[in-house]
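Internal ticket - ligand job 369, flavin-adenine dinucleotide:
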Amino acid sequence: MPARAADVAIVGAGILGIAHAYALARRGHSVAVYERSSQAAGASVRNFGMIWPIGQPAGRMHEMALRSRELWIEVLEAARLPYFPAGSLHAVYRADEADVAREFCERAPDLGYTCEWLNAAQALVRSRALRPEGLIGAIWSPTEITVDPRVALAQLPRFLGEQFGVRFHWNTAVCDIDALQASAAIVCTGHDFETLYPEVLRSSGVTRCKLQMMRTRPQPESWQLGPALAAGLTLRFYESFRICRTLDALRQRIAAEMPEYDRWGIHVLVSQTAGGELTIGDSHEYGAAVSPFDRAEIDELILSYARGFLQAPGLEIAQHWHGVYAKHPEQPFLALSPAPHVRVVTATGGAGMTLSFGLAEDTVKEMGF
Ligand SMILES: Cc1cc2nc3c(=O)[nH]c(=O)nc-3n(C[C@H](O)[C@H](O)[C@H](O)COP(=O)(O)OP(=O)(O)OC[C@H]3O[C@@H](n4cnc5c(N)ncnc54)[C@H](O)[C@@H]3O)c2cc1C
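stdout (structure tokens):
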């Protein structure tokens, strides 16, 4: 490694590494990123690409998500990368789901959310991908955007290199921060808790979550998903909906009627890629040990639920995979200082794409850059 390679060394070229590199580089600092693989291959390329402020709890995290969204758009525009600023719909087909959705739309605007209750006819105007049979209505929110994670994570390093001179060292596993010879380091190594600062991470209480995902073949060019889709199961998943008094009844009904969905932590989201495929998932299995083997049963449960609200020209599945993220049981992310001038930033759970650029901006400000 060259002496004093950069002002700041970043370990990991997932979205947190990229976002921190951008935050520093646009402030004029020299940055070197070290990634052990030949390209990002962790949670950041395995997700839906949803920038999803509506899922964040009111207050600091929702504000961070909105700021992150602004920065995402700034960088996507500058890098000329595709994205869909199409918002989101949470579609509801049961009375208890509609109670939660309506209550959220009444209370959330006072807390800073931009959202609106749509009846079935209005929701169907917003989306041709929703099944009309039994649809009661939907929460419409314009703030969500979808990026193509595989395209963005492959292209953003090139953009950061060309635009800001950020240097990427691929196939370079970092085992010792001091060897990097930088004035400061930011460690964004996702769910790797074993290589750098294992004691610090182990004692932080962080764990892992495994998620199963699928992708269809490309839809015809004439058909667009429009807003990214969620449905009733998602209302019990994101923290933002915990403001609803009606949520308990929905949770209880799902636990009684659909225990296998609780068992595997399933809720169903649908987004579209730049190439027209639909990304459909997901499940949540928590624990430090992640099984390398996926369960066909989980994919079937996800697809069966998706077919209840989603209509698209082709739902034949072309790819199955799983992703793993780091998650803290109580905190929305971890920012630890295991040594002077070193920050470990991880455990953004299911919201790392959403929070990335906003969180990175906060980190570099706190570090005095
Ligand atoms: C299936 C799935 C769906 C999701 N959907 C969404 C979504 O739609 N919206 C959303 O906001 N969030 C979503 N998330 C969460 C989001 O993807 C993660 O929070 C985020 O990608 C974490 O980014 P990261 O940079 O911390 O980790 P990663 O993407 O895992 O990147 C860490 C990188 O560090 C590298 N690395 C590790 N150790 C070393 C080392 N010692 N030296 C060098 N390199 C190292 C790894 O190779 C890896 O490339 C989803 C996650 C999953 C798994």
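Auto-summary: The mean pLDDT is 97. The CA atoms of residues 16 and 223 lie 32 Å apart.
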